Amino acid sequence: MTVTLAILVALVFVLLGVAKVLALPQMRELATHAGFSVNAYRGIGALELAGAAGVLLGLAHPLLGGLAGAGLLLLLAGAVITHVRNKDKPQQLAPAVVCALLVIGYLVAL
After folding, report:
1. What is the model's pLDDT at position 55?
2. pLDDT per residue as tens digits for the range 15-38
3. Which of the residues 10, 30, 34, 85 could staple to 52 if both were Cys, CB 3.0 to 4.6 A apart?
4. For the chain, what is the radius of gyration of the CA atoms?
5. How many whole angstroms separate alpha carbon 48 and alpha carbon 50?
6. Separation of alpha carbons 55 and 53, rounded Å
7. What whole-number distance in Å separates Cα of residue 75 and Cα of residue 51?
8. Collapsing DSSP states into helix, strand and coil, what is residue 7?
9. Using an 8 Å Cβ cutoff, are 102 and 5 in contact?
């Protein structure tokens, strides 16, 4: 179960991180909506990629995976706070909450 969750968490954050680092058009729009510069959003993407790598490395070194998961949770807490401050609709907040629940599930499985 832990391996499956680790791979799922890593896949989600690799996809999100790459999209942000490449500054794909939708990510540029989201950055503007959230009040971030594109470069700041790229930085968030880089942190997501690092978190994904840490979760995968956590398959061999569980402590590293736990720390990476905690870091991803902090990023997601920031995402939730940003959505709440922007008074976003529940549909806009839902992906961050779902990702947080996924990461929490991974951390519990560790």
Report:
1. 98
2. 999 999 999 999 999 999 999 999
3. 10
4. 14
5. 5
6. 5
7. 10
8. helix
9. yes
